[in-house]
Amino acid sequence: MPSVSSYFIKKGIKAGAKKLKLEEKKIEESRQIIDSFARKFSKLPKNCKVEKIQIEGIYAEWILNNQTKEDKVILYLHGGGYGYCSAETHRSLAARIMMEAGVKVLMPEYRLAPEHPFPAAIEDTIMIYRWLLKQGYDSSNIIFAGDSAGGGLSVSATLELRDLSESLPAALVCLSPWVDLTSSGVSYRENREKDPYLVEELVRKTAQAYAADESLDNRLISPVFADFSGFPPMFIQVGSIEILLSDAELLANKARQAGVEVHLKVWEGKWHVWQISNKLPEAKKAVKEIGNFVRQFSHY
Fold first, then answer.
1. Entry pTM
2. S-S: 173 plus which of 94, 98, 132, 145, CB 3.0-4.6 Å?
3. 3-state SS, residue 152
4. Which residues are designated catalytic?
5. pLDDT tens, 247-264?
């Protein structure tokens, strides 16, 4: 049963989304609004350190403390529809995952659409991954993680690496992954009135901005249409009332059909990327589950 806090936070999110009306604004304008809001209200856990770096022209942040393991890393890819968000919006979530997992996090600010449409985000992710390998990290000690578009990006980048016959990350952690940019799933209709945050119009707008001249069913844009043979284990969390519920379920089913080890949990009454709300009891539990998955993983 959802917590009392969940009820009030959901109401606040719904009111805020209705007021902002991001679907009616230009992506570039909305991006600035979202980042400005995050700078005011985002807080880091205690005993957390952020180290800013540049990796071949891409800004990134190491998030760690004095207890994180030196030879292991979570490559965290922030969400935001491939057009919004940054380290500002996701630093707190990445830090809480770091604390629970005991593994340092590297979070890059990959290029965003519409200025940099597909395949820019995938190219940047693969470049960062190869950079980690050059720094001496073994692929078996690297986990890809991400929320929403970042979850989809982690899957698409792994697809590309597999097709290039390169080493793959040890596992994927996908929070409310956006993996079907065609919006074909039933939850887009069934949860339309329940989702307090995402609206189908905004999802379709950002999907088209990212895809540009490419088809939305391109398997690197909508990886739910891909074959996942040879993939590493997947850990997936999704909310029962979000319009992207079908994305997560379709991804899990397709991966299982290909023989992939999949851990899928649907959180009752939860919305899109609820894990980012650090005052929400269910967010704390969800992040703890992510940490447990990372900690129990064989190479960790």
1. 0.95
2. 145
3. helix
4. 148, 242, 272
5. 999 999 999 999 999 999
